[in-house]
From TrEMBL, chain A:
The chain crosses the membrane at residues 33-56, 62-85, 90-108, 114-133, 145-168, 188-210, 222-243, 249-267, 295-319, 331-347, 354-373, 379-398. It comes from the Bacteria. One of its GO terms (cellular component) is plasma membrane. It is found in: Cell membrane. This is Xylose transport system permease protein XylH. PANTHER family: ABC TRANSPORTER PERMEASE PROTEIN YPHD-RELATED-RELATED, XYLOSE TRANSPORT SYSTEM PERMEASE PROTEIN XYLH. Keywords: Cell inner membrane, Cell membrane, Membrane, Sugar transport, Transmembrane, Transmembrane helix, Transport. Its main location: membrane. The lineage of its organism: Bacteria, Bacillati, Actinomycetota, Actinomycetes, Propionibacteriales. The keyword Transmembrane helix applies. The keyword Methyltransferase does not apply. It is a multi-pass membrane protein. InterPro entries: ABC_transp_permease. Part of the binding-protein-dependent transport system for D-xylose. Probably responsible for the translocation of the substrate across the membrane.
UniProtKB/TrEMBL annotation, chain B:
The keyword Chloroplast does not apply. One of its GO terms (molecular function) is ATP binding. This is Monosaccharide ABC transporter ATP-binding protein (CUT2 family). It comes from the Bacteria. PROSITE patterns: ABC_TRANSPORTER_2. Pfam families: ABC_tran. Keywords: ATP-binding, Nucleotide-binding. Residues 4-239 form the ABC transporter domain.
Length: 408, 255
């Protein structure tokens, strides 16, 4: 007997391990590329950079690369949310710079405890997002313009706040700086975490499959779940082993991954997440389904700017300073590019939290590789631009394929 | 006491008066068909009832109380469910997600298994021909989408169900199924408002036919005892209209 959801005769039966594999191939053929292009792109970039400079894939460099990508990656997580509802925030760089300045001034100059200084910076970031959403909801100015105004205004505020001094150094022995530069997961703990992750993935998958079977629906086979968890454990285990040959995995990177997982859960498994995708897909339909569209915009912008502020704090901690250049330069564009390179659609309704993680890895790999080749930032900008164009090009082609395969 | 009682509803879009002092009443266990030409104001009336537009004037009574319907969520809470003419589905979401949009089970930990089971129940009830419910709605045919939209309105056992041209894109079997469904809804004591251009469908299921013409009431007819010609005359506003002329011509040619 076939499961209740597979009884239509037009549905090609795809059960068991082989079924799962052929379903994946089908999806890629139909343009449902998901993570495939960005992972492939990342591999190509790594191979090319490794050939150009053998230090690139060294343990030391990868440890460093992972730490470097956290501040921009955290900001990119927020950008993913905003893009999902079909809006944009161009001011995340300025907000991160401003929050770095607020945190540094309160912490160093006014002698506040670090956690309180960070909290105030985050609240300030959150308030900016709520303000953006209020303006958008009430006045209806496009967010492109609102956040462009924010970009300029908050940059001004940051410069004003840092004023005469222009830069505030964080003491090297402060917890913040130590966290961002020196705190690494002990090797044994990293392997425990890897095993826990694999076990967790299996248990969740198994319980879910059991529940589906009881409800007479098709479910993933236990063999598939075991192999999936096994592959994850081996993959992550090898990566951890390689990184542990030098300093290992920074706690800051673990924090980034944890944030990405939380956001992934919120987007895929909560009512709020479905509302976000619905607003991005068809605002009018979402409104008629009784979703409070304004509240969705407000929550999304608040999350985006809070994460931008958090990224700014982490960036300052990593640098051990907040200065007039914090959050300036390429932070803004890198964060947006990371979300898009990872596969988040600019038109709303498509993308995942992992897009930010993969996207920022690509950007950071390019940046690190070109620095190792002693090429200055002019090359980095150029190459990042080309990669962005390629990524969006792949996405647009995939969209066409999707339309013709009925998955648009 | 009618479940739903509209009186003197008016709504304009700028200079266009889409509705002028429209009255309508629907009882529990009653099927009311609203008919009228293109642009007569049928969909606008539906949107007033489902909280999409606020009326400029007039009152809405629901189960004996006077109510306002400030938004779609308010309509859901009252127990008014609507299938819109444009369906209002999210193309990027799959069938289950669309069915439960805004009414998901388990807000902080979605119960996708329960939702999938319920989705299949609803879709089977409508004899839906869907290969899978995990496809994005963009991949469905027009009729399949309409079925999804109708199934969505049945979630949560509403008191009044409004169907704006529910069978326009449906195949023969699915149309019959929707008409059967309307019969069943009536038997279960739901009030149904159905909008249709198809006189045969209207006379097959409706108890009462309300005619709108240029945004105004133009007669209420008993569906059993009124002929199609009389209804068409009320829709077009002419005894001697293009429909009757054509009918006469065809008859003349036959003889
Ligand atoms: N959003 C709107 N803005 C301006 N005018 C509108 C709007 N919606 C409807 N109208 C106008 O209101 C009138 C009634 O439109 P409505 O959609 O209610 O017609 P209808 O009876 O549903 O027609 P149909 O049979 O074609 O679906 C039309 O003249 C239309 O132009
Ligand atoms: Mg209409």
């Amino acid at each position: 007997m076939t499961a209740a959801d597979l009884s239509d005769e037009r549905l090609r039966q795809a059960t068991g391990l082989r079924g799962s594999a052929s379903a994946l191939v089908d999806r890629v053929r139909a343009g449902e590329l998901g993570m495939v292009p960005v992972v492939a792109g990342l591999l190509v970039i790594c191979v090319v950079l490794q050939i150009l400079n053998p230090i690139f894939l060294s343990s030391t460099n990868l440890v460093n690369l992972l730490m470097e990508c956290v501040p921009v990656g955290v900001i990119a997580l927020g950008i993913v949310c905003v893009l999902l509802v079909g809006q944009i925030d161009l001011s995340v760089g300025s907000i991160s710079g401003l929050s770095a300045a607020i945190m540094a001034i309160l912490f160093v100059k006014d002698g506040w405890p670090a956690w309180l200084a960070v909290l105030v910076a985050l609240v300030a970031g959150c308030a900016i997002g709520v303000l953006y959403a209020e303006i958008f909801n009430r006045v209806g100015i496009p967010t492109f313009v609102i956040t462009l105004a924010g970009l300029l205004s908050f940059l001004g505020l940051q410069l004003k706040a840092l004023g005469a001094i222009g830069s505030v150094n964080l003491p090297f022995d402060s917890g913040l700086v130590e966290f961002a530069q020196l705190k690494f997961v002990p090797p044994w703990l990293s392997y425990v975490l890897v095993l826990l992750a694999a076990a967790w993935l299996f248990v969740v998958g198994f319980l879910h499959a059991a529940k589906r079977r009881t409800a007479d629906l098709s479910a993933r086979s236990t063999r598939f779940l075991l192999i999936r968890s096994g592959v994850l454990a081996v993959g992550l285990g090898l990566a951890a082993w390689y990184l542990n040959r030098t300093r290992g995995i920074g706690w800051m990177f673990v924090l980034f991954v944890a944030l990405a997982l939380i956001l992934h859960y919120a987007l895929t498994s909560t009512k709020w997440g479905k509302a976000v995708y619905a607003v991005g897909g068809n605002v009018e339909a979402a409104r008629r389904a009784g979703i409070n569209v304004r509240l969705v915009y407000t929550s999304v912008f608040a999350i985006c700017t809070t994460l931008a502020a958090f990224g700014g704090v982490l960036g300052a901690a990593r640098l051990a300073a907040a200065n007039q250049a914090s959050g300036g330069g390429d932070v803004n564009l890198n964060a947006i590019a990371a979300a898009v390179i990872g596969g988040t659609s600019l038109f709303g309704g498509r993308g995942t939290a992992f897009a930010a993680v993969l996207g920022v890895l690509v950007i950071q790999a390019i940046s690190s590789g070109l620095t190792l080749l002693s090429l200055d930032s002019s090359y980095r900008f150029f190459v990042t631009g080309v990669v962005l164009l390629l990524a969006v090009g792949v996405d647009s082609l995939a969209r066409r394929t999707r339309t013709s395969h009925g998955r648009a | 006491m009618a479940t739903l009682q509209l009186s003197g509803i008016s709504k304009s879009f700028g200079a266009v008066a889409a509705l002028t002092e429209v009255d309508l009443s629907v009882d529990a266990g009653q099927v009311v068909a609203i008919v009228g030409d293109n642009g007569a104001g049928k969909s606008t009336l539906v949107k007033v009832l489902s909280g999409v537009y606020a009326p400029d004037a007039g009152t809405i009574g629901f189960e004996g109380r006077e109510v306002t319907i400030p938004g779609p969520a308010a309509a859901h809470r009252l127990g008014i469910a609507t299938v819109f003419q444009d369906l209002a589905l999210c193309e990027n979401l799959n069938v289950i997600e669309n069915l439960f949009l805004g009414q998901e089970l388990g807000p902080f930990r979605l119960d996708d298994v329960a939702m999938e089971v319920r989705s299949w129940e609803l879709l089977r009830q409508l004899s839906a021909k869907l290969p899978t419910v995990r496809l994005p709605v963009a991949a469905l045919s027009g009729g399949q989408r309409q079925t999804v939209a109708i199934a969505r309105s049945l979630l949560g056992d509403p008191k009044i169900i409004i169907l704006d041209e529910p069978t326009a894109a449906l195949g023969v079997a699915q149309t019959a199924e929707v008409l059967n469904l309307i019969d069943r809804l009536r038997e279960n004591g739901h009030g149904v408002i159905m909008i249709s251009h198809n006189m045969a469908d209207v006379r097959a299921v409706a108890d009462q036919v309300v005619v709108l013409r240029l945004g105004r009431n133009n007669g209420v007819f008993d569906a059993r005892s009124t002929s199609s010609e009389q209804i068409v005359a009320a829709i077009t506003g002419l005894e001697d209209n293009v429909v009757s002329q054509r009918a006469a011509r065809v008859e003349g040619a036959d003889q």
